[in-house]
Each structure stands twice: as structure tokens, then as C-alpha cells.
Amino acid sequence: MAAITLNKARTIIRKTLAKSREMELKPMSVVVLDAGGHVLAFEREDGASPGRFGIAQGKAYGAVMLGMAGKAQMARAEQQAYFMAAVNGVYGGQVVPVPGGLLVRDKRGAVIGAVGATGDTSDNDATAAMVGIEAAGLAGEA
Amino acid sequence: MAAITLNKARTIIRKTLAKSREMELKPMSVVVLDAGGHVLAFEREDGASPGRFGIAQGKAYGAVMLGMAGKAQMARAEQQAYFMAAVNGVYGGQVVPVPGGLLVRDKRGAVIGAVGATGDTSDNDATAAMVGIEAAGLAGEA
Amino acid sequence: MAAITLNKARTIIRKTLAKSREMELKPMSVVVLDAGGHVLAFEREDGASPGRFGIAQGKAYGAVMLGMAGKAQMARAEQQAYFMAAVNGVYGGQVVPVPGGLLVRDKRGAVIGAVGATGDTSDNDATAAMVGIEAAGLAGEA
Amino acid sequence: MAAITLNKARTIIRKTLAKSREMELKPMSVVVLDAGGHVLAFEREDGASPGRFGIAQGKAYGAVMLGMAGKAQMARAEQQAYFMAAVNGVYGGQVVPVPGGLLVRDKRGAVIGAVGATGDTSDNDATAAMVGIEAAGLAGEA
């Protein structure tokens, strides 16, 4: 299994932020987690609210821990809210089950980490993050 | 009260995993808890997401602590979500009230532990775990 | 980076337990964690006290999260107790800084997980676990 | 009060990492927090252990929340360990009272954030982080 290097993580963040500026989104925050859900890199744009690290991390953390990206998590939460609430209990309240949490896969399809983006609508967050992941030569799942 | 021995716990896990392979389920994780809700044995198949221990344990923990298997817990959660949320508060966020958490009973019907399985749909998780429990000569309640 | 497969984790546990029996140690419990500190496999021998999962996991978790095996953690705790107490706060109280928490390295020296053993003296726990790790063809650091 | 911009935070991190490479330190992790103790940016070098975010954040968080840099925190912990333990209770276990947590001040001396570095000895962590803060045209207190 390949790991996300710091260089790749930087590329993901910079390209996500560049895409956010191009889309004229609100100030964006982006985290990159490794395959174990641990933080590799994070940046918060000027003007973003102070609590954005936790939201970004929560979007990415649930994705990697469950092996389920933000859109699938949201579908499950819409269907069975008490299940995602329970999952959140198990993971110490660190799961934010909405788009903007993306799985990152290597060439063979193995999950090697996740990206969490937050600042604008959940769908816009996800769109920008996907551009960042692909700019790093990796495959994203929103 | 008979206890689940480590040998029995191993049998439960191996046979649950064998059944999962036969059913062609996604990578499975299985935990066996004792009558006090404490972990006896656990295995996570290659390819399962890293957070599966907590989900498996949460399914089994609620079962043994409440004396209520996963299907009954889910019925209660569907009816009265705030009750299961409150139970989760009491038990430190460790309860995942869906199928795949099975009670294990001895010959006289006493609860001697629980099994938690996670990886595929909740119903498939429960089906595989029941096969594992019965292969160990014990009675399961899904 | 190679991962510890479930097969390797099973070998580590079985050989640690076999060595424990040969050394006539008290009932042993052994956990294997992946490179992100997440549980791969665990077994608790008959007669062990119910709370052994948490101790085993705590020995291994601190090792992998800090990249520092149990003996080095203990040395740091002896020297600077408040530092290890603080680390424990950061990691949610999951760190048990004594021998019996061993790093597992691949052929190139990268940490690919950790083993936690508990039941007898900390030094005996570490001795048995090292035998288990080596039996799986991996390198341990106690 | 001037704030630490994302550009400044990036400079702090890059220059701290550059200094770490020049000093041939172990893989380093660096966080920059704002005046409210919230994460602005973080990077973890390849080869660092997965739990380094929490340690870096803990060093910086205590600094900004108490208005006391790592060296002063350590002195207090050496003198009165129970006080720092109590502080940790107040701040949710997020304080790591050793060098490598540096206050960042603006031209008038107001605290505008903190930097946390971890990877090598606490003193080396602090030395590298100070170089990073000064490279961004700010004043650090170790």
C-alpha cells in the first residue's frame, strides 16, 4: 500500500484551495489524513471561522474509519440517523457525515487516506477537494 | 453459568469468517465479548476499514449490556431514537443498535456473552455471525 | 510499507501465547494493532481478568502513536512523569507506558504496527511478545 | 491585534522544517495555532509517527491558553506536577507542558498565536520552531 507523502498532501491542499478561489467559494479549510485517520497536513484560509479544523477532520475521519465517503455517509444518515449517531459515539464524536469528506485511493484501489474540506456548501467543498486529489495523481471518492 | 472459552471464541470467529467468504461478503470483522461485555477475541479481515473494531464491539456491547440483541435494539431505535441515544450516553457511546450484534446463550438460556460482526449489510453480518455461534455449539439470538 | 496481514497477526498471537505457556506465565492477553493504532486481532486466555483488552491495547497504542516502544516509554515516564501523563491526555487515556508494548517493523525498518501483551510481569509480557513477532518473520522492538 | 495569516503560518512551518533538516533532526511535525488556540496549519514529515499532530497541538495549545511558553510550563510542571495535571483537566487533556510549544507575538508584544513542534528532543524542537517564527518576521518565546 502506497502512503500519501507530505508532498502529495501539500499538492492536494494547494490545488483544492486554488480551485476554491477559481469557484469563488467562501474561505476554505482542508485536511489530509493518512490511512489510519491521523493528520498529515491542514490549512485554513484567512477569513475562515476558527472551528474549521474539527469540521474538516470530522468529514475525513469518518470516511477513512468506515471506508465510506461523505456522500454515502450522508445517505446512511438520512436513512438511519440513529446509526450515524451511534457511529459518532464509537469514534468519539469525530464524525461529520456530509459531502466534503473524500476517500483517497491508490492505483490498486486501496484506501490510503482521506481529505476533508469545509467552508462553502458541502457539495462545493467536495468538488474542490476532488480537483485537489486528482491534481496529486490520486483517485478520489466523494 | 458456562463461560465462552477462548477456544469457543476462536471457533465463532473462524466460522463467521468462513461463512462470510462463502456468502462473498465484504471484508468482515468479528468480536466476541464475555458476559460482562469485555473483549475475549477479535479479528479483522484484510481489506476491512481501520475503524471496524469499534463498530463490531458496539454491536455486541449493547446486546450484552441491555440483554437485547441487535434486531430488537434496532426496532427500539426506529420507534424511540432518543431512548437509544440516551442508552448510548449511559454506556459511554459504545452502543451500535443494529443487526450484527448477537446474544450468546448457554444450554439453559443464560446470556454468556455476545458477538459483533460488521463489514457487509447489517443483516448479512448477522447471518454470518449466527453460523459462527452455532458452529461453536452455542445458541445465538440475532 | 508492508501491512501486518490477519494471517501474520494470528501467528504473532498464537506464538506469544505458546511462549507464555512454555514460560508458565499467568494467563496472557495479546493485541496486534496496525500502523494507525487500530485493532487487527486480539485474544485473551481463559482465566485472565476481564479488563485485559484495554491494558494490552494501551501498551501497543502508545508505542505506535509515539513511535516509541514500551521500554523507552517507561524510561521517559520514570524521568518525566508529567510528560507521559500529558501524552495520555492527548491520546484519550489510552497509553500504558510499560514493557509489553512492542513496535513491529518491516524489512526496511518502517513501523507497520505494534503488539501489546499483558498478564504476567511487564518484562515477561515483552519477552513472550517478541517471540511471537519474530515467529511471524517480523522485527520487534521492546 | 495582527493575526497570523495563512501565508505567515506556511512560512513558519516551512522554515521550521528546513531548519530541522539542516540540524539533521528526526522527522518533524509542526502546527500553528491562532490567538484562540485553533489550528491554522499543520504539516507532518514523512517518517514521523502517526500521533504527532496531538503532541504538536498540545504543546502549542497550552502555550496560547495559559499565555505561557513550553519552557515556563515545564518549569511549573517540575515544581508542581499536580497543577499542570489540573490545567490539563480544565483544557480537556490537550496540554503538553514541555519545550517545543512557543508563543508568537506581534510587534507590540501581544500574543497572536503559538507554534508546536515535535519529533526530536524537546529542546531541538524549540530551536527549530524559533527559527521558523523569526523567518516569518514575528517574535517567538520558547
UniProtKB/TrEMBL annotation, chains A, B, C, D:
Pfam families registered for this protein in UniProt: HbpS-like
Q: Which domain of life is it from?
A: Bacteria
Q: Which InterPro entries match?
A: GlcG_carb_metab_protein (IPR052517), PduO/GlcC-like (IPR005624), PduO/GlcC-like_sf (IPR038084)
Record-linked Gene3D superfamilies:
Haem-degrading domain
* Listed name of the protein: Uncharacterized conserved protein GlcG, DUF336 family
